[in-house]
């Protein structure tokens, strides 16, 4: 029996660079998770890779998030407005002065993933 698996190959150096830039602190809650093997954070794509979204694996399409906020973001629990305030959660996204998010990707996320039931909260 033959099994085939298709998966998107991500640039691990990009992921590592965004986490290093933010010192492994979540851009939403500013929490840094320490484990026995070092700090842990996740690189989240704003506009997802692969079909049907076809987002790029680029630094300006990545966020550094804790696991909880990564899941919430991926499933539309919150999104990011043009001024980096959050919708669906209180607060604003922490942005490093050397890092620019492509606002086309945040708009895409808002339009395609943000749960409409949260609008206006």
Describe the structure.
- The protein has helices at residues 12-21, 67-74, 103-112, and strands at 33-35, 38-40, 42-45, 62-65, 79-80, 86-87.
- The model has no long low-confidence stretch (mean pLDDT 89).
- It is built from 3 helices and 6 strands.
- A two-stranded antiparallel sheet has the order 1-2. A two-stranded antiparallel sheet has the order 3-4. The protein has a two-stranded antiparallel ribbon with strand order 5-6.
- A hairpin with a 5-residue loop joins strand 5 (79-80) and strand 6.
- With 121 residues, the chain is of the alpha+beta class.
Give the SSE map.
Blueprint: H1 12-21, E1 33-35, E2 38-40, E3 42-45, E4 62-65, H2 67-74, E5 79-80, E6 86-87, H3 103-112
Antiparallel strand pairs: 1-2, 3-4, 5-6
Strand content: 5-15%
Structural class, from helix and strand content? alpha+beta
Low-pLDDT stretches are none
State the end-to-end distance: 51 Å
Rg for CA atoms: 15 Å
- Secondary-structure element order, N to C: HEEEEHEEH
Give a quick summary of the entry.
This protein is an alpha+beta fold and 121 residues long. 23% of the residues lie in helices and 15% in strands.
Summary keywords:
6 strands, alpha+beta, two-stranded antiparallel sheet, 3 helices, single chain
């Amino acid at each position: 029996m033959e099994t085939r698996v298709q998966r998107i190959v991500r640039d691990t150096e990009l992921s590592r660079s965004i986490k290093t830039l933010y010192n492994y602190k979540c851009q939403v809650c500013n929490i840094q998770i320490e484990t026995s093997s070092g700090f842990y954070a996740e690189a989240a794509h704003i506009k997802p890779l692969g079909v049907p979204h076809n987002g790029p694996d680029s630094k300006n399409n990545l966020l550094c998030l804790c696991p909880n906020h990564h899941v919430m973001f991926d499933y539309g629990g919150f999104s990011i407005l043009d001024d980096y305030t959050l919708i669906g959660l209180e607060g604003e996204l922490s942005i490093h002065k050397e890092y620019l998010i492509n606002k086309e990707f945040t708009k895409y996320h808002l339009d395609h993933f943000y749960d409409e039931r949260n609008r206006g909260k």
